[in-house]
Write a structure and sequence with these properties.
Keywords: Membrane, Transmembrane, Transmembrane helix. By secondary structure, the protein is mainly alpha-helical. It is 79% helix and 0% strand. The longest helix is centred in the N-terminal third of the chain and has 21 residues. The radius of gyration is 16 Å and the shape is globular. 16% of the residues are buried.
């Protein structure tokens, strides 16, 4: 039963990851990292398929081995976060935008400090 729950969570993460690769302001790789985590507990063969994927696998392996985010990934994340903050200020205004921007700044600082 527990393996089934891990599999279901992994599949949800894969779907969210695919959506994240298509939508510009939603992260994709983060969900694939979560999917690999879930599949490691639910179905290790599926985890290996993710790690072997030519597009996603290198990012997952770099994250697992060194906690690394590629320079291109950092740049894309930071640009999208800046756009999201600007849109939040434009659409929601104070105080929601201030709260959102504070969270984005903390996350941006964390992303910027990861190795490449």
């Amino acid at each position: 039963m527990l393996r089934s729950l891990w599999m279901a969570a992994g599949l949800v993460m894969v779907v969210l990851g695919i959506i994240g690769l298509i939508l510009p302001m939603m992260p994709g790789v983060v969900f694939f990292i979560g999917a690999a985590f879930c599949f490691a507990r639910g179905n290790p063969a599926w985890e290996q398929r993710l790690l072997a994927d030519r597009r996603i696998g290198p990012h997952l392996i770099a994250w697992r081995s060194r906690g690394a985010i590629s320079a291109q990934g950092k740049r894309a994340a930071l640009i999208m976060m800046a756009i999201a903050a600007a849109l939040t200020w434009w659409r929601l205004g104070w105080p929601w935008a201030a709260v959102s921007s504070a969270v984005l700044v903390v996350v941006a600082l964390w992303i910027a400090t990861r190795p490449e």
